Amino acid sequence: MDASLHELRSVVHRCPVIDNHAHNLLLPDKLQAYEFAAITTEAQGAALKDTYTSLSHIRGANQLKELYGCSKDADWNSVLASRAQVLTDDPWGLVRKCLEGTHTILMDDGLDADTVHPYTFHDQFTIGKTRRIVRIEAEAQDAMRMLMENPDRKFSTDSVGKDSLWVEFAREFEQRIKNLILDPEVVGFKSVVCYRTGLDVEPEHLSESALGAAIDDFHLYVDSAAQGQYRIEHKGVNDFLVGGTLQLLSSSRIETGMSKPIQFHTGLGDSDINLLRSNPAYLQPVIEKYSHVPFVILHSSYPYTREAGYLATVFKNAYLDIGEIFPMLSKDGQLSMLRQALELTPTSKLLWSTDGHWFPETYWLANRQFRRALEQVLTVYITDGDISLAQAIDAAKAIMYRNSNHLYNLKLPDDPIEGSGPKLLTEKAMYPAQTRHSVPIPVSINRPTAFPDAQALEDFQAKHGQLEYVFVSWLDYTATTRTRIFPIGEFQRLTQTGTRFAISNGTIGILANDALTPACDTTGVIHIEPDLSTLSSNHLTPPSSATVLASWRDASGNPHPACPRSTCQTLLDHLHSTHHLTLTLGFEIEVLFLHRTAHPSSPPATSSSPSFPTPLDPTHAWSSLSPHSLALSLPLLHAIASALSTAGISLTQFHAESNPGQFEFVLPPRPALAAIDTLLHARRIIASVAEAHGLRATLHPRPVPGGAGTGAHVHASLVGDDERRSEGEVREGAVGKEGVEEKEMRFWTRGVLGHLRSICAFALPIEESYSRVADDSWSGGRWVAWGTQNREVPLRRIPGEKGDWKGGRWEVRCVDGLANMYFTVAAIVAAGMLGLEEKGEEKVRAKDCLPNPSRLTADQRAEYGIYFAMPAELESALSLLEEDSELASLLGDKLVSDYVTLKRAEAVMLGAMSGEERRRWLMERY
């Protein structure tokens, strides 16, 4: 075999699969409930007797001989006997072998719930954990059963009673779907309307005629349910369930920026299906109407594969699953179907599934036959010169793994195999060789799927009005917000075509005044990719505009190893995937409002008079509000709160701080990356409103010499996955209540505290930052320590309302507003994971310090495990970061090196200014 084809074969047969549609395995005592011969056919009953002469059965039986160790000439009865012996000797070994190579199963667990294992059972045999696909008809049946069999709620069977029951039924079904949309275990939904009344679903399910038909059919359904027949086979009701689910999914897309997909059984089925009405072409009106919702057309839609491929090609929100025909068709049929799917459909719109069910062998046969078919088809395309080796390898990974990872938002590593074909992201460049305590970081999954970004812009304009401009912004290494402004027409073109724009790689190494530093390498480019889930209105006078935050990508569209935002997301993803922990953040925005007395366009570093000599209110004090202060401040504060609210940003409170003209705005907790994005939007809006009032809003850490400092305290909590088996024990790898507490202590008091001095290089990024952090000033103090409700330590633990762990959080106090918060949080997460991965116990651990460390003697501090002072200057923090090889290995050695180089160059530039010049220069920019 040609070496390049051998490489393709290696990838196709080694790549773990995300099985995007399958079913539960049977319980051991239910193995006889179904005919084993049905594993290669949809035939049932009398029709099943002829399956033994089908090519699919003969081929499957021959392959099973290999699985069970039978002789090649064994007949079917001998195969069954060998299987029975395997099930007696090592049943779980058989399951493990059959699911080998499966990374994650997305399981429709609405089939025969009484005879199968719960979905979590399958986790022990796969690389990743099983996730749920919810069958909407099963939910509707359960809802009806609950209402009908509720002894406390009786419904009459007359027309009025049935109408009343309809209202209850519709409400209960809607609430169930809403709850399931929010359930992180549920990654998608499924409808079997194809089996019930056909795919010609009424797209306008709330129209007068459709509702009338639904209610009339519901009356008939009530009669069936009263006889214990809860299966829904009444077209008006079935269409209502599908339409209602699609409406809720569409609404969630508008509200949250994403929609969970919905799968539809199409094509191949047993005699219970109407073959004509199983054609996916019937779905075109609803696919078109609900353009926010991803549709997955299941089971290769055989024999309507071409029709399904057409829909997946022309509709952005349609995808084709190429499952079930393995092992249901002959080899030639499988190859033909696979070629039909590839005739028109982009490989980015194809998904793999086994439709494995009941017996583990269904998984084994499907995966085995599919891998061979995919290899054969791609090999021909390469040999004929239709595609390159790299394109074939990428297509295989996309179909088998990546497309499902993106579509279902699984947040798994993008590339499941190392060393297979051209790397889209060089992991070694981003994460060098591990040190003793370093943890292996996967490639970031922070590459948004192409769907549904273009739609997100339309949704935003529908809600906020037509835009004229979009500001694309990103945060550089100096925490300067860099922005490109696009007319709306050009921005729409970018989003619709999935085009990124490029900037020079050298921008990594420039200062806020565009001065070059040794970190500047002008070769190569960075591709800027807006994340449309971050769209936020600008508080500006006309023209109408919005700001969207962006990440950096490489030429292949993968996260750039130098990107602050992507680095942060990568580490957050790893924290969750490895330790089952999610970080939630809430930020305090401390800001000082100053009057301008010199025109803002005059060069602040050379102006002979100070630009900002007077604060907004020279008389106020912490949390005070005199009538004079009220008159001066409230109009501004109200305008800020209103502008934030208009942008969808809520405040929990705001109040006066200690410096005259200084205020604090408190943001509610959110998932970490979203919280940082919101922080940047909020700061932008606050500064914009202040400017409209003739004021400058500054985050300068020491804006008034001798006055109180301005910080940016970070409130954080770790949330563990609450995943339990049906028997009640904690799932392996999941985090129970006690596990969260133990992990929190290791994360914060071992990891973060142990690397806190290095983290200061990011969190306290200029020399003025260190003059803010002092003893006896409520700024976190000078000692590396932690304490419960102690504001004189840099790491404060805040218990919950009842004083216990539940609902508690941690506050990182050694942070100010000039920090690049993506880098700061990334460093915190990296340090925390080092604490989680640390093995054994050190002799001394920092203890909960309740007193002020600065008022303790050295011996007393030692009793609390307090030995180190915080860095007193920026250079000390940068040196500590350079020496912290463990932290640098997780953040990326090149990233850390460039950051340190740039900050030293920045310090030289600022050091050349006089004190007042420097103060004004920083205030104008931050």
From TrEMBL:
Species of provenance: Viridothelium virens
Domain GS catalytic: 564-926
Highest rank taxon of the organism: Eukaryota
GO molecular function, one term: hydrolase activity
Lineage: Eukaryota, Fungi, Dikarya, Ascomycota, Pezizomycotina
Family assignment from sequence similarity: Belongs to the glutamine synthetase family.
Basic and acidic residues: bias regions: 721-737
Segments for region (Disordered): 718-737
PANTHER family named among the record's database cross-references: AMIDOHYDROLASE 2 FAMILY PROTEIN, NODULIN 6
Protein name (database record): Extracellular developmental signal biosynthesis protein FluG
PROSITE patterns per the UniProt record, alphabetical: GS_CATALYTIC (PS51987)
SMART domains registered for this protein in UniProt: Gln-synt_C
A UniProt-annotated Pfam family: Gln-synt_C
